C-alpha cells in the first residue's frame, strides 16, 4: 500500500462517523421529504399515492398558506431592513470615541444568546395591553393604550421589533469588525483632501461595507424566513392569523392537521425559495467583492 | 474610523442618550424578569404595573418547585445539552483536522456538502426526523432528543477555522518523523486547540440548552421535557402567574448567563471568526 493510499484511508476512517451521520440525519430526511411531497394520503407513516405536482399546486389555493407567505415576507424584509439600518448607525457610533464602548457592545449582543423562550415570554409580559410595562410607561407620558400583539394590524410589526431586538447586537458586532478592517490610510487621504466626517462615512465606510451588509442581509433573511419559535411562543400565529409565519403553518399542517404529504410540499417550496435567495445573494456578494 | 475626531458637546448630548436607550432596551426583559420573579401574588394581581416590588418575595423561588417538576426539567436539559456538547467536543476537532490538514480525493465535494447542510433549514428536516425518531421508538427518550444534534457542520467548520492557522510545517515534520495522523492530532493539534474547544463547548451547550422546537415535537410526556418546553407548559397552565413564570425564566437564564459572562470574549471572537449563526 502506497503512502498516499494509506493517508486517504486514514482520512476516510476519521470521517466515517460523520459521513454516516450526515447521510442519515441530513441527506436522507431531505430525500424522504422530497419523495413525500409528491404523494397524498400519509406518506412516511402509512398508505399514500403518487399525485405529481398536486401538492405544490394546492399551495396557491391555500388561503392560509398565501397569508403565511405574505406575513413571512413582511417579517423577513422588515427584520432585515430595521436590523441593518439600526446596526449600521450604532456601529458607526461605537467605533468612535465613546465611553464604555466595549461594555455597550457586550450588552447589545446579549439578547442574541438568550433563549427564545425567555425573550418571548418576557416581551409578552412587557407588551401585555393591560398589565404590561410598556403601556404603563406610555400612560405615564399621556399616550393611549396600544394592543401590540392583540391587534392584527400591529402584531406582525411588534414581532419584527422583537426580532430586531434579538439580532441587533450580532449585526453590530459584525459591522464593527468590518469597519475596523477598513484601511486607515483611505480616511487619511480623504481627510487631506478636505473631506468632512459625514463624507468619510458616506463615501468610504458605506461602500466598503457593502459585502458585510449583503452577508448580514443573507443571514438574517434566511433565518427570518424560517422563524417559528417566536410566533409560536408569542402569538401562536394570531390574532386572525396575522403572525402565522410560514414555518408555523408547515408545523401545524404536519403535526396538527397530520397532512404529511402537503406539509412536505410546503417545506420543499420554502427550501427552493431559500436556496434561490441564497444563490442570488451569493452572486451579489461575489460581484461586489470583485468591485471593491 | 475617524477616531481622532472629537465629538462636539452637542453631538455628545445626542449620542449618549441614544446609546443609553439601546442599552436599556437590550436588558429590559431581563430586568423585568428579575422584578417579576420577586413580586408577590398580590402585587401581580393589583392591576398596577410594579417595577420595583414592595417586599422581595424570595419564596417564589421555592414555590415554583412545587408547582411543576422543574428539577426534572432541569435535569433533562442538562443531560441532553451536556451529552450533545460532549459528542461535539469528541468529534468536531478531529473532523475539522481532516478538512484543515489532510489531502484526499473527494475532499472538496465533502466539504461543500458539509457546508451545504448549514443552509438546510431545520424545519425542512422536522417532519422526516419526527417520523424516523418515532420508527426507532425514540420519542420521549434522551437518545431521541440528542441524536438529531449529535453533529453539526457549524462545529466542524469552526474547528477547521481554528486549525488552519497552525503551521503546516509542524504537521509535515511530525509526518516525516513517522507519527500517525491520530498521534499528530492528539499531540500537536489538540494542545493548541484548548481555547477553541472551550468556545465550541460553550456555544454548543448554550444553543442546545435553549433548543425549543425539537423537544416541542419529540417529547409528549411531561417527565421528559427539558426546561424550555417545560416552562411554556407551566406558563400555559398558570397563565397569569407571571411572577412564577419569571422564576422559571431565571432558571433557564442563569446557567447560560454565567457561561456567557465567563466566556464572553471567546464567544464574540468565534462568532466573528465563523461569521455565521
TrEMBL record, chain A:
GO cellular component: plasma membrane
Keywords assigned: Cell membrane, Membrane, Plasmid, Transmembrane, Transmembrane helix, Transport
UniProt keyword annotation of Transport present: yes
Listed Gene3D superfamilies: MetI-like
Membrane topology annotation: Multi-pass membrane protein
GO biological process, one term: transmembrane transport
Pfam families tied to this protein: BPD_transp_1 (PF00528)
Residue ranges of every copy of the ABC transmembrane type-1 domain listed in the record: 69-281
Spans through the membrane: 12-31, 73-95, 107-126, 168-187, 208-225, 260-280
Compartments where located: Cell membrane
Family as reported in the entry's similarity comment: Belongs to the binding-protein-dependent transport system permease family.
Protein name (record): Sugar ABC transporter permease
Species of provenance: Martelella lutilitoris
UniProtKB/TrEMBL annotation, chain B:
GO BP terms: transmembrane transport
Cellular localisation: Cell inner membrane; Cell membrane
Superkingdom classification of source: Bacteria
GO cellular component terms, semicolon-separated: plasma membrane
Gene3D superfamilies with a match to the protein in the record: MetI-like (1.10.3720.10)
Keyword annotations: Cell inner membrane, Cell membrane, Membrane, Plasmid, Transmembrane, Transmembrane helix, Transport
Transmembrane segments: 13-34, 78-99, 111-133, 145-163, 184-207, 244-268
Domain ABC transmembrane type-1: start-end pairs: 74-263
Keyword Membrane carried by entry: yes
Topological category with respect to the lipid bilayer: Multi-pass membrane protein
Pfam families according to UniProt: BPD_transp_1
Similarity annotation: Belongs to the binding-protein-dependent transport system permease family.
Subunit structure as annotated in this protein's UniProt entry: The complex is composed of two ATP-binding proteins (UgpC), two transmembrane proteins (UgpA and UgpE) and a solute-binding protein (UgpB).
Entry function: Part of the ABC transporter complex UgpBAEC involved in sn-glycerol-3-phosphate (G3P) import. Probably responsible for the translocation of the substrate across the membrane.
Record-given protein name: sn-glycerol-3-phosphate transport system permease protein UgpE
Organism per entry: Martelella lutilitoris
Lineage: Bacteria, Pseudomonadati, Pseudomonadota, Alphaproteobacteria, Hyphomicrobiales
Gene: ugpE
Amino acid at each position: 500500500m502506497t503512502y498516499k493510499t494509506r493517508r486517504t484511508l486514514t482520512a476516510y476512517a476519521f470521517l466515517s462517523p460523520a459521513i454516516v451521520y450526515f447521510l442519515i440525519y441530513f441527506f436522507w430526511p431531505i430525500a424522504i421529504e422530497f419523495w413525500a411531497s409528491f404523494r397524498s394520503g400519509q406518506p412516511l407513516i402509512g398508505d399514500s399515492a403518487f399525485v405529481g405536482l398536486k401538492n405544490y399546486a394546492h399551495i396557491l389555493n391555500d388561503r392560509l398558506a398565501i397569508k403565511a407567505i405574505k406575513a413571512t415576507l413582511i417579517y423577513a424584509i422588515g427584520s432585515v431592513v430595521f436590523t441593518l439600518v439600526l446596526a449600521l448607525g450604532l456601529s458607526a457610533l461605537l467605533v468612535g470615541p465613546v465611553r464604555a464602548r466595549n461594555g455597550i457592545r457586550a450588552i447589545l449582543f446579549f439578547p442574541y444568546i438568550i433563549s427564545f423562550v425567555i425573550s418571548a415570554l418576557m416581551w409578552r409580559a412587557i407588551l401585555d395591553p393591560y398589565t404590561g410595562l410598556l403601556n404603563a410607561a406610555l400612560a405615564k407620558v399621556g399616550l393611549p393604550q396600544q394592543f401590540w400583539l392583540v391587534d392584527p394590524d400591529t402584531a406582525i410589526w411588534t414581532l419584527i421589533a422583537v426580532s430586531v431586538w434579538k439580532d441587533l447586537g450580532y449585526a453590530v458586532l459584525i459591522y464593527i469588525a468590518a469597519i475596523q478592517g477598513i484601511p486607515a490610510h483611505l480616511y487619511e487621504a480623504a481627510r487631506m483632501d478636505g473631506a468632512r466626517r459625514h463624507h468619510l462615512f458616506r463615501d468610504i465606510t458605506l461602500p466598503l461595507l457593502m459585502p458585510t451588509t449583503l452577508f448580514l442581509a443573507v443571514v438574517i433573511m434566511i433565518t427570518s424566513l424560517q422563524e417559528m419559535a417566536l410566533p409560536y411562543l408569542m402569538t401562536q400565529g394570531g390574532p386572525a392569523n396575522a403572525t402565522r409565519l410560514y414555518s408555523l403553518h408547515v408545523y401545524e399542517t404536519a403535526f396538527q392537521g397530520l397532512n404529511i404529504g402537503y406539509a412536505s410540499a410546503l417545506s420543499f417550496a420554502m427550501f427552493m425559495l431559500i436556496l434561490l435567495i441564497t444563490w442570488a445573494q451569493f452572486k451579489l456578494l461575489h460581484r461586489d467583492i470583485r468591485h471593491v | 474610523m475617524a477616531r481622532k475626531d472629537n465629538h462636539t458637546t452637542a453631538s455628545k448630548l445626542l449620542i449618549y442618550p441614544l446609546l443609553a436607550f439601546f442599552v436599556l432596551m437590550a436588558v429590559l426583559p431581563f430586568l423585568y424578569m428579575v422584578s417579576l420573579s420577586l413580586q408577590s401574588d398580590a402585587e401581580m394581581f393589583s392591576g398596577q404595573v410594579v417595577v420595583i416590588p414592595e417586599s422581595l418575595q424570595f419564596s417564589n423561588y421555592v414555590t415554583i418547585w412545587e408547582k411543576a417538576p422543574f428539577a426534572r426539567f432541569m435535569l433533562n436539559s442538562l443531560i441532553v445539552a451536556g451529552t450533545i456538547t460532549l459528542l461535539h467536543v469528541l468529534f468536531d476537532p478531529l473532523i475539522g483536522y481532516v478538512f484543515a490538514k489532510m489531502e484526499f480525493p473527494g475532499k472538496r465535494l465533502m466539504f461543500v456538502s458539509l457546508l451545504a447542510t448549514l443552509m438546510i433549514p431545520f424545519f425542512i428536516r422536522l417532519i422526516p426526523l419526527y417520523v424516523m425518531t418515532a420508527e426507532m421508538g425514540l420519542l420521549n427518550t434522551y437518545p431521541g432528543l440528542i441524536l438529531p444534534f449529535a453533529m453539526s457542520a457549524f462545529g466542524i467548520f469552526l474547528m477547521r477555522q481554528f486549525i488552519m492557522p497552525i503551521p503546516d510545517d509542524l504537521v509535515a515534520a511530525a509526518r516525516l518523523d513517522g507519527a500517525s495522523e491520530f498521534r499528530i492530532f492528539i499531540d500537536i493539534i489538540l494542545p493548541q486547540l484548548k481555547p477553541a474547544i472551550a468556545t465550541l463547548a460553550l456555544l454548543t451547550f448554550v444553543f442546545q440548552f435553549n433548543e425549543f422546537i425539537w423537544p416541542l415535537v419529540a417529547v409528549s410526556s411531561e417527565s421528559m421535557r427539558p426546561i424550555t418546553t417545560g416552562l411554556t407548559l407551566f406558563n400555559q397552565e398558570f397563565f397569569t402567574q407571571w411572577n412564577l413564570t419569571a422564576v422559571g425564566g431565571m432558571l433557564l437564564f442563569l446557567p447560560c448567563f454565567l457561561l456567557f459572562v465567563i466566556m464572553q470574549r471567546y464567544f464574540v471572537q468565534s462568532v466573528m471568526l465563523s461569521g455565521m449563526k
